[in-house]
Structures are given as structure tokens and as C-alpha cells.
Fold:
Amino acid sequence: MDIAQIESQALKLSESDRAVLVDHLQASLSSKKISYLDEHVTEAKDRLAAYRSGKTRSFDGASFVASLRNSLS
Structure:
């Protein structure tokens, strides 16, 4: 069975059964990988908090890249 078939079958499960499956799959990952993901979540939350508090501002991608290219020319 390939990953697409497994996913298709998993999506047919009830929400609670999918939650149990997720818990089991996450538990099967090495703790190092989960720690790495936790670090990304923490960083994302910190950045969002900084944005919401006004400590940092956002730029749309296209404008930022254009500005960067202009500054490097």
C-alpha cells in the first residue's frame, strides 16, 4: 500500500480515530524530530507576538524581494 492509499483510508476515519492515529504516529517519531518541530512552533509564536505587539512589522513578499534587489544593484 502506498502513502496515497494510506492517507485516503486514514481520512475515512472518524475525527477521534484520526486524532488517536496522529498521536501514535507522532509517538513513533524520534524525540529529536519532535523537539525540532517544537522549536519552530515556539519561533513562529514569538514572531507573531512581536508582530501583534508592534515590535516588528511585516512586508509582502514581492515588495520585499524588489526592495532587496534594488539595494543589491
Summary: Residues 31-53 form the longest helix (23 residues).
